[in-house]
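Researcher: We're teaching a course module on how sequence relates to structure. For the next exercise, students receive a sequence and then see the predicted structure as tokens, so they can try to spot secondary structure elements on their own. Here is the exercise chain.
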Amino acid sequence: MYELVSLVNDGADPAETACPMTTELKPRPRRSAEGTGRSQDPDGTRQNIIEVATREFADKGLAGARIDEIAAKTKASKRMIYYYFGDKEGLYVSVLEAAYSTVRAEEATLRLDDLPPLEALEKLVQFTFDHHNRNEAFIRLVMIENIHNAEYLARSSVIEQLNVAAIGTIRRIYERGLAEGLFREGIDPTDLHWQISALCFFNVSNRATFSKIFQRDLGSKESLARLRAEAVEMIVRFVRRP
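Model: And here is the predicted structure for the students to work with:
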């Protein structure tokens, strides 16, 4: 796994869980952000904060990340971060929501319902493998949230609905494959989602240790191509009717 020594006892910093100036944080219509001359762009400012905070939380965990440092790397002030997100925990939950929203939005562009079931399943595995490989921060955020026993994820109804939709996608693929006699009976769509996630997630989360232990670069172009093809083959063999 990735180096998690600083994350094992990860917990929220009480000093940063609330803003001491919340009573002053009122909207200031038609004024530049924090009086700096920058034009008002709430969506852009919020997105910029999320992007920077994603890197900070992924690298340092919830306890290690600091609002001061996040503010210094964004186009916003610490005060504005509290205005948008309430406190550090609120920002962290928003980062989780953004990460899950991104993967589901990209998945939706695949138009899997328009593909034959076997092709749709293969494409879903390929996409998941590629997404996780491109987005190490997402993998680290999920690892961190598992350290917290999904405490903060549970606060978000957004993430819950996103993953209901993900299971719905797999269910439709599987049911179409059953109807066409391609897939075997008795597979739970949530279990199938688990197996796909496990293969693609482990490829990133444990790459460093496996590469070191077995003296093989599992992050090389050749290794990734082979592991990707094998992940697709394993899932298809698991689902396909004998």
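Model: If you want an answer key for the exercise: The domain at 94-239 is CATH 1.10.357.10 (Tetracycline Repressor; domain 2). The CA atoms of residues 97 and 159 lie 6 Å apart.
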